Amino acid sequence: MTAEILAQLAPTGVLRAGINMSNFLLVTGRGPNGEPDGVSPGMARAIADRLGVPVHYVPYPRPGELADAAGTGAWDIGLIGAEPQRAEKISFTAAYAEIEATYMVPPGSPITALDQVDRAGVRIAVAARAAYDLWLERNIQHATLVRAEGLDGAMDLYLREGLDVLAGLRPRLLTDVEKQPGARILEGKFTAVQQAIGTARANEAAARFLAEFVEEAKRSGLVASLIAKHQVRGLSVAPAA
Q1: Residue 61 confidence class, pLDDT cut points 50, 70, 90
Q2: Neighbour-count burial of 234, counting CB atoms closer than 10 A to its CB (0-12 exposed, 13-18 middle, 19+ buried)
Q3: How does pLDDT run across 135-162, given as a tens digit for each residue?
Q4: Distance of alpha carbon 17 from alpha carbon 9, whole angstroms
Q5: Cβ(146)–Cβ(125) under 8 Å?
Q6: Taking the complete model, does pTM exceed 0.90, yes or no?
Q7: What is the C-alpha separation between 101 and 61, in angstroms, rounded?
Q8: Cα separations in angstroms, 216 against 55, 150, 161
Q9: Do 166 and 100 form a contact (C-beta atoms < 8 A)?
Q10: What spatial distance separates the first Cα and last Cα of the chain, rounded to whole Å?
Q11: Would you state the pLDDT for residue 141?
Q12: Are 131 and 81 in contact (CB under 8 A)?
């Protein structure tokens, strides 16, 4: 710990942690004072404890809005999916946890495998600016992405418009598939969303500190203990960097 790291991560004397409230695996409830609770708030609290400062949570309803605030001074660390587009303004650690992303298809769909989705005429419902949406934007070449606000919005759009595919995180799709009898979740994953911790790119000393903290948190069992404490299914500890 150095004065430089502390100045970069807690310039106000408090660690302000940007939290993506829409990730139901990482934010699973509220604390006694209404603050976010779950794996990502727990990671932020552990970092604040290491720094020797209080933590203040800065909630965002969607990940894109959290990313937009990078470098504005609204938060000191952001707990969010690491994607190349976001890395233009955010210096990310390696992932501390991973979430599989895959597809759901409606009853009677001729699509039976992941490699059959990216074809002309196939319409994919997706939550706008989610980490897996950013992956799809880079990788889908023939199918059409149809975006909605948030996870519920994507599901509603998929059902309302009769779209061919719903993209999402596997744990959420396990719930969504029950709302459409006969629907199927495809085997495998098209990507794994890398849940990481970021800070403004100018904070070079802080970025090195956070990178080391995350690797230690994976080795020591801290990440695994937070997943177990909050009884999260579908979230796994990421491999060592």
Answers
A1: very high
A2: middle
A3: 999 999 999 999 999 999 999 999 999 9
A4: 10
A5: yes
A6: no
A7: 20
A8: 20, 33, 46
A9: no
A10: 21
A11: 98
A12: yes
